[in-house]
């Protein structure tokens, strides 16, 4: 029969025997480094695309878990929209991004047209290879094919925050002076005509004192609906 005086020693003995075996585990946990962000983390920015003028900006961010965040509007009046990609949609976008070759884009150094109303754009892309790629261009620049495709994908991702069934420009749409179009952020613009070099369109805001210049091939990246046709 165990003596009452030895009872506390008997209770402590197993713990003392276990301590040497637990010590390596405790030390390993203590010195383990913090886990780096992975491409599937909600804080990992796969793509960050921003275009701004002196009075406003639009910014599209795709996170590793498939969340899409869009900031858009005039300075001091920015609004945020959120969307979620399904795993299949997320994988499809990532595959399209991986297929792009950026050799020509890395050497892109075209002169930029600058002005109060002309957008300056930048895009940061970080895929699973861990390499971060950064690009910058002006709204009126002629872009290499790979960079043009990258911009198109970024614009498509930004539209994922829109409700299902949101408008699009008619498939056979041809721009005409006097047409009123709706931009991605909901602002309406009237086409004033072609630029002097015939390479872009000049549009004026209907509700805001804005003037923008857009190449005709980029209309679908920037505008989502034909509000009204020019009167004959």
Verbal overview:
The protein has 232 residues and is of the alpha+beta class. 25% of the residues lie in helices and 30% in strands. It is built from five helices and eleven strands. It has helices at 7-31, 87-98, 103-106, 145-158, 219-222, and strands at residues 45-52, 56-63, 67-74, 79-84, 120-126, 132-138, 180-183, 188-194, 201-205, 211-214, 223-228. The strands form two sheets. Strands 4-3-2-1-5-6 form a six-stranded antiparallel β-sheet, covered by helices on one side. Strands 10-9-8-7-11 form a five-stranded antiparallel β-sheet. It is globular and about 50 Å long. The chain starts with 6 loop residues before the first helix and ends with a strand. The model is unreliable at 8-13, 15-19 and 25-37 (pLDDT under 50).
Descriptive key words:
232 residues, alpha+beta, 6-stranded antiparallel sheet, 5-stranded antiparallel sheet, 5 helices, 11 strands, globular
Net shape: globular
Elements, N to C (H/E): HEEEEHHEEHEEEEHE
CA radius of gyration? 27 Å
Q: Strand tally, please?
A: 11
Amount of helix: 25-40%
- Unreliable runs: 8-13, 15-19, 25-37
Count the DSSP helices.
5
Strand order of the largest sheet: 4-3-2-1-5-6
Derived structural class: alpha+beta
Q: How much β-strand is present in the residues?
A: 25-35%
Largest sheet: 6 strands, antiparallel
Can you give the mean pLDDT?
Answer: 78
What is the distance, rounded to the nearest whole angstrom, between the alpha carbons of the first and last residues? 111 Å
């Amino acid at each position: 029969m165990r003596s009452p005086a030895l009872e506390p020693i008997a209770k402590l003995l197993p713990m003392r025997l276990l301590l040497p075996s637990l010590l390596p585990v405790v030390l390993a946990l203590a010195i383990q480094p913090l886990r780096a962000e992975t491409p599937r983390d909600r804080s990992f920015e796969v793509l960050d695309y921003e275009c701004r003028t002196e009075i406003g900006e639009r910014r599209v961010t795709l996170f590793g878990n498939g969340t899409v965040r869009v900031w858009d509007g005039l300075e001091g009046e920015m609004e945020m929209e959120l969307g979620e990609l399904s795993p299949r949609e997320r994988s499809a976008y990532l595959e399209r991004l991986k297929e792009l070759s950026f050799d020509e884009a890395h050497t892109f150094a075209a002169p930029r047209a600058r002005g109060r109303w002309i957008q300056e754009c930048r895009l940061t892309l970080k895929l699973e290879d861990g390499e971060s790629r950064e690009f910058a261009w002006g709204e009126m620049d002629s872009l290499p094919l790979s960079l043009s495709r990258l911009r198109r994908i970024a614009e498509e991702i930004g539209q994922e925050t829109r409700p299902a069934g949101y408008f699009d420009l008619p498939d056979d749409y041809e721009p005409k002076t006097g047409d009123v179009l709706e931009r991605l952020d909901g602002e309406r613009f009237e086409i004033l005509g072609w630029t002097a070099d015939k390479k872009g369109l000049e549009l004026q805001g209907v509700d805001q004192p804005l003037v923008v210049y857009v190449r005709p091939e980029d209309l679908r990246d920037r505008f989502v609906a034909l509000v009204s046709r020019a009167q004959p």
